[in-house]
Design goal:
single chain; 164 residues; alpha/beta; Rossmann fold; 2 domains; three-stranded parallel sheet; two-stranded parallel ribbon; globular; binds nicotinamide-adenine-dinucleotide
Length: 164
C-alpha cells in the first residue's frame, strides 16, 4: 500500500479503525473520516500516519450479511464495477460475518448477550467471531495492486458462514 492514498469512513472504531491503521502502518497516506470527531482524532496517537476528518458519510442503509452478498446492494457493486472497469476504476466490497468490534463485544453485558454471542460464534463454521484486522486485510488486498484484475467482487469474510 506504499504510495497509495486512502479515504476510510467510519474510521474511529471497529472495522473502519482497523482498515485505516493497516495501510497507514505500511506507508500509505490515510485520511480517516467519522462522525465521532474525538474518536477519529485519537487515531493520530497511533504509531501510523493518519489524518482525520470529522463529518458524516452517506450511508446506503443496513443490510443483513446474506443480503450483502446477494441482494440489491450486491447488484450495485457488480453493476458499478462493470460500468467503471473501462476507465480503470475498480469497485469491490467485503461481506463480513460477525466481527469482534466494541459494539458486538458490548452485547456480553446485556441480558441474554453471552448466550447470543455463543450461538452466533457457533453459527460460523470456524467456531468463532472474526477480528476487525481480518476484515481489514481483505479490504487492503482488494484496494491494492495485487487485486489489479478484481472488480465487481463481493468477498465474504465470515469464517465460512455463507458456505454452510
Ligand atoms: N461488526 C460486525 O459484526 C459487522 C458485520 C457485518 C457488517 N458490519 C458493518 O460494518 C460497519 C462497521 O461495523 P463496526 O462493528 O466496526 O461498527 P462500529 O460501531 O465499531 O464503528 C462504526 C463507526 O462508524 C462511524 N459512523 C457511523 N455513522 C457514520 C456516518 N454517517 N458517517 C461517518 N461515520 C459514521 C461511527 O462513529 C463509528 O466510529 C457497519 O456498517 C456495520 O453494520 C459489521
Amino acid at each position: 500500500m506504499n504510495e497509495k492514498s486512502c479515504l476510510v469512513t467510519g474510521a474511529a472504531s471497529g472495522i473502519g479503525k482497523a482498515t485505516a491503521l493497516l495501510p497507514a502502518r505500511s506507508g500509505a497516506r490515510v485520511t480517516a473520516a467519522d462522525i465521532d470527531g474525538p474518536g477519529v482524532g485519537k487515531l493520530r496517537t497511533e504509531p501510523a500516519s493518519v489524518s482525520g476528518v470529522a463529518g458524516q458519510a452517506r450511508q446506503a442503509g443496513g443490510t443483513s450479511h446474506a443480503e450483502g452478498c446477494g441482494g440489491p446492494w450486491a447488484g450495485e457493486v457488480r453493476g458499478v464495477g462493470a460500468d467503471r472497469a473501462p476507465r480503470g476504476i475498480r469497485v469491490n466490497a467485503v461481506a463480513p460475518g460477525t466481527i469482534r468490534t466494541e459494539r458486538v463485544l458490548a452485547l456480553k453485558d446485556e441480558p441474554g448477550g453471552p448466550a447470543y454471542l455463543a450461538e452466533v460464534s457457533a453459527a460460523h463454521p470456524m467456531g468463532r467471531l472474526g477480528e476487525p484486522e481480518e476484515v481489514a486485510r481483505v479490504i487492503a488486498f482488494l484496494a491494492s495492486d495485487a487485486a489489479s484484475f478484481v472488480t465487481g467482487a463481493i468477498v465474504p469474510v465470515d469464517g465460512g458462514y455463507l458456505a454452510r
